[in-house]
Amino acid sequence: MSKQFLEMPDEKGYFGEYGGQIIPPPLIDIMNEINDAYEKVSNSQAFKDELYDLQKNYIGRPSPIYHAKRITEKAGGAQIYLKREDLNHTGAHKINHCIGEALLAKHMGKTKVLAETGAGQHGVALATACALVGMDCEIHMGEIDIEKEHPNVTKMKILGCKLVPVSRGTRTLKDAVDSAFEEYLKDPANYFYAIGSVVGPHPFPKMVRDFQSVVGREAREQFLETNDKLPDTLIACVGGGSNAMGLFTAFLEDEDVQMIGVEPAGKGLDTPDNAATLTLGTKGAIHGFECYNLQDEEGNPLPVYSIASGLDYPGVGPQHCYLKDIERVEYVTADDKECLNAFMELSQLEGIIPALESAHAVAHAMRIAKDLPADKTILVNLSGRGDKDADFVADKLAL
């Protein structure tokens, strides 16, 4: 990584003007304690060895890169490749940082790990990691998402975590974050809040990015080995933005590699039913940090919507905000219709059922491939599999 990006965030947790610790002073001390512990263990060879062993023998890394020839033929033009994070243990990229956070919590002597979840992938991954290391786990999830993502709810219960339904507000991801954070504040000295993306107060955007960066490091090496060059374009969906930062981080200094983050346009950018934070948002504070977010005139977070539960968040990771401002990453949108179409196309042309979140990225890859020559390459981070979404999509499309 170039020096410009290697030195971010700064010591106060800022990527340019985004990030930081917009939290009460007592919590700043707790966050700094977590940062100090993270810096210590991340430089420990014993921790690195344990993490690598679990990545290889538990998660199943490295995840492969697959040339999606039939979807490429259907789209026309550029060659579409998939980084298969859907093949990880628990079915998504979330396990990458959950293993790291659970190990850190255990190292710090915490008694319980808390988290929110939208699509349930973070919840399943964290419940899995906590079972592995022997930690108590509590997951807060909006009632709408509980109904929508029932397979993941069942998995979390089987894995032994305490599931807390959230009935307030929109009963989705933002409210689950609020609920989990309130529980965390009851005993922050003994609880560990395992944030599920590159969001929240410092050091979480940095930590989650670092744990997820294995995706991009692998992809870079794999693509060079099989194609003798780097991909021309990287594409990943963006809600909070962890899977995208996981892929992008290893390529930030490669100026010839285009990077595109795909946000959910939902029912349309001209409606209130979207979660296109970087596209339509303005700078403000949410959940302990500064970022682009969708807010009303008083600065309060707006209700947001996406067909993909893991993307319906009114804020976004601070590093994404910085990368948008310096124009290193282009941020675009895909709506529900495009998402569902990509979901079905990938399923029926490649036999790969993607998560609805990932289908946003697939949709944009198919959209731009047709206008590019056949010797150009697009690498999509297929961040999760669609087992959790299959029944919902079947009902939605009357299959």
Set down the secondary structure blueprint.
Blueprint: H1 3-6, E1 14-15, E2 18-19, H2 25-42, H3 45-59, E3 65-67, H4 69-75, E4 79-84, H5 94-107, E5 112-117, H6 121-133, E6 136-142, H7 143-148, H8 150-158, E7 162-166, H9 173-185, E8 191-193, H10 204-212, H11 214-227, E9 233-237, H12 242-248, E10 258-266, H13 277-280, E11 282-286, E12 289-293, H14 318-325, E13 330-335, H15 336-350, H16 356-369, E14 377-382, H17 390-396
Parallel strand pairs: 4-14, 5-6, 5-8, 6-7, 9-10, 9-14, 10-13
Antiparallel strand pairs: 1-2, 3-4, 11-12
Report the structural category.
alpha/beta
Q: Alpha-carbon distance between the termini?
A: 46 Å
At CATH level 3, the topology of the largest domain is Rossmann fold
Per the principal axes of the C-alpha atoms, what is the gross shape?
Answer: globular
